[in-house]
Design a protein that fits this description.
Mean pLDDT: 83
Distance between the termini: 89 Å
Number of strands: 10
Strand order of the largest sheet: 2-1-3-4-5
Low-confidence stretches: 206-231
Largest sheet: 5 strands, parallel
Strand content: 5-15%
Oligomer: single chain
Radius of gyration: 42 Å
Shape: elongated
Number of helices: 26
């Protein structure tokens, strides 16, 4: 039905011209025919407009029919005579006016109607979409002007009578221009323009497939959720501060992350600030006092998306040594969250691109801002690009983007938190002090947040990282070292050779005078870092000058000496007391002694091979 209604204006215009040519354009007949057709086309055009199916072609044909009817009715000697003299030229003239004039007054572009049927809605408001259609509309205006001039040629030059001149100037030349030039140009120009800008052409939008018929079973199969299957690991939200909606170099940098992130199971959502309503910060301070900004626009919803995301990306090109106005307005409005650590950290990225310089500084600035949205930076992606898509070393930029995307995905999956920095410490110290001083005034809401999250309990609460226990050292060895250092300094100052340093008596297993004492002292040399999560039992069956059985239990980063045999040891060492004592003091090579049969082992021999590592303290 819609197709038939779209053809109807063309049929009416053709019929109006054909009847006029056959009947020699009698005014009364043409007035009635034109006005009658125009009246019938009014509801047709209203329906087409309601369905968004009315193009300038249908409007042009309808206007021509109405114009012809009015011309013969109101001015048969003027407009009616002009239509009768050159009806085809008038038709093309009407089309030229409808194509050329609306853009001059901010109206729709001629080709937009057709372009929107084959391109995604997401690109309709982009500059590149408008530029392409503006250029194509200009070409079509020129073509309709040329068709108008062609249809006027018989009047200007009075060609010989006969059908050939009419066919040539009224049909052949106009159709050659429209079909031979206009349609091929319209088909190829968008791809050409996008490639010239360094972009991948937007492909025609395929029509949505028909939903499959419901299965015959009483209980249909549950629908598939493709997004949950593809992006099971979560969502990453990128804020794009570029005013070039969807076509700029900042967008291209963000898109370089997408393939790797999707391989890792993450969905990437890009929010274009230039398409959002975000007013400037008024500097009123109510966001600090009340905990939220009072301005009702898109800002709060975007921040909510950032806080809910699994990772955050902030991206902006360099505009006069800093972020764009769109990004700066968004960041300025985020003060309500700036003093309130989120309680959980998520990974983030900072992205910036410049034509010459400033991209590193801007990226570092955005990386510092990430903490406002509960994120920490895993890196920065920067690039130099002088024109759209003209990246310096594009391959290296793409490789860097892939590496950072993998780092970002791994940080989310493993719930990583990068080491705290001095900037974290300064923020905690300064902002904590500032909020505490203003707790009864403008920062009461911030103070309540810090109290509820225990942030005043210590820096470790803010960064959510605990201090690791320090390694113990032998105080006797330390004192010996200090005495030696002081003695050497005094001897050097006095100009004499330093005295031999006092020797500290070792407190480790090497000082043992018996094998039993040696085994009792072995836990002192145990290295928990080297052991990791090792859980093992080593049994010693000592013979020779001493005869006893004992075992060492290694578990949870500790080692303890236990008298007697173990129920199920992982390793059993059978050794004479003198042999093991000599090995511990370095007088005998342990591996050579084992190979020479001076002691034997049964069980997990890899434990024996790790002894130097496990007892290295």
């Amino acid at each position: 039905m819609k197709t038939a209604l779209r053809i109807l204006p063309i049929v009416c215009a053709s019929a109006f011209i054909a009847v006029g040519e056959i009947k020699a354009f009698p005014p009364a007949l043409m007035a009635g025919l034109g006005l009658g057709m125009a009246a019938g086309l009014v509801p047709v055009m209203l329906l087409l407009r309601r369905w968004s199916q009315a193009s300038m072609v249908e409007w042009g044909m309808s206007v021509f029919v109405a114009l012809g009817g009015l011309g013969f009715a109101l001015g048969p000697g003027g407009l009616g005579r002009a239509v009768a003299s050159a009806p085809v030229a008038v038709l093309y003239g009407v089309l030229f006016c409808l194509v050329a004039l609306p853009p001059l007054f901010g109206g729709p572009l001629f080709t937009e109607h057709f372009a929107k049927k084959t391109t995604p809605e997401a690109v309709w408001q982009t500059d590149i979409f408008k530029n392409i259609n503006r250029n194509m509309t200009l070409v079509w205006a020129c073509l309709f002007a040329a068709c108008t001039l062609s249809a006027l040629m018989p009047l200007a030059f009075s060609p010989p009578d006969g059908p050939v001149p009419h066919i040539l100037f009224f049909a052949f030349i106009p159709l050659a221009l429209l079909l031979g030039v206009g349609l091929p140009f319209t088909k190829k120009y968008p791809d050409y323009y996008q490639r010239r800008m360094g972009l991948e052409p937007v492909r025609p939008q395929a029509p949505a497939p028909e939903p499959p018929a419901a299965p015959a079973q009483p209980r249909p199969a549950p629908p598939l959720h493709k997004e949950e299957t593809m992006f099971a690991n979560g969502k990453i939200v990128a804020i794009n501060g570029s005013p070039h909606q969807g076509i700029g170099n900042t967008t291209q940098l963000i898109e370089m992350l997408r393939p790797t992130l999707e391989e890792e199971g993450f969905a990437l959502e890009m929010i274009l600030l230039s398409g959002k309503e975000i007013d400037y910060c008024t500097g009123c301070g109510l966001c600090i006092e009340k905990g939220k900004c009072w301005i009702p626009d898109d800002h709060r919803g975007i921040v909510t998306q950032l806080l809910a995301a699994d990772a955050v990306i902030l991206a902006s090109p360099v505009y006069f040594y800093h972020v764009t106005a769109q990004m700066k307005a968004f960041l300025d409005r985020s003060l309500a969250w700036g003093h309130k650590p989120r309680g959980t950290f998520k990974p983030g990225l900072a992205i910036s691109v410049a034509a010459a310089f400033g991209e590193v500084e801007v990226a570092n600035y955005l990386a510092r801002i990430l903490h406002v949205y509960g994120a920490f930076s895993v890196g920065t992606l920067t690039a130099l690009a002088t024109g759209p898509g003209e990246f310096l070393g594009r391959e290296t930029v793409e490789a860097r983007a892939a590496d950072l995307a993998r780092d970002l995905a791994r940080a989310v999956k493993q719930k990583r938190r990068y080491p705290a920095t001095s900037e974290d410490l300064f923020f905690w110290l300064h902002i904590g002090w500032l909020i505490k001083n203003q707790k009864d005034g403008i920062m009461a809401d911030d103070y309540r947040h810090w109290q509820e999250h225990g942030l005043y309990e210590g820096f470790h609460k803010y960064v959510e990282q605990e201090w690791s226990p320090g390694r113990t050292y032998d105080e006797q060895v330390r004192q010996a070292w200090l005495q030696q250092m002081i003695a050497e300094r005094k001897a050097k100052k006095a100009g004499r050779a330093p005295a031999a340093p006092p020797q500290a008596q070792a407190k480790g297993p090497q000082s043992a005078r018996s094998c039993r004492v040696l085994l009792e002292m072995m836990p002192r040399g145990f290295n928990p870092q080297a052991a990791g999560d090792l859980q093992a039992v080593v049994q010693f069956e000592v013979s020779g000058s001493e005869s006893f059985t004992t075992h060492l239990v290694m578990a949870e980063g500790k080692c303890r000496f236990v008298e007697g045999p173990a129920p199920s040891p992982n390793l059993v060492i059978k050794t004479p007391a003198e042999v093991w004592l000599a090995i511990a003091k370095g007088e005998l090579d342990g591996q050579a002694a084992f190979m020479g049969g001076k002691y034997t082992v049964t069980g997990d021999i890899t434990l024996l091979m790790r002894f130097k590592e496990l007892f290295s303290r």
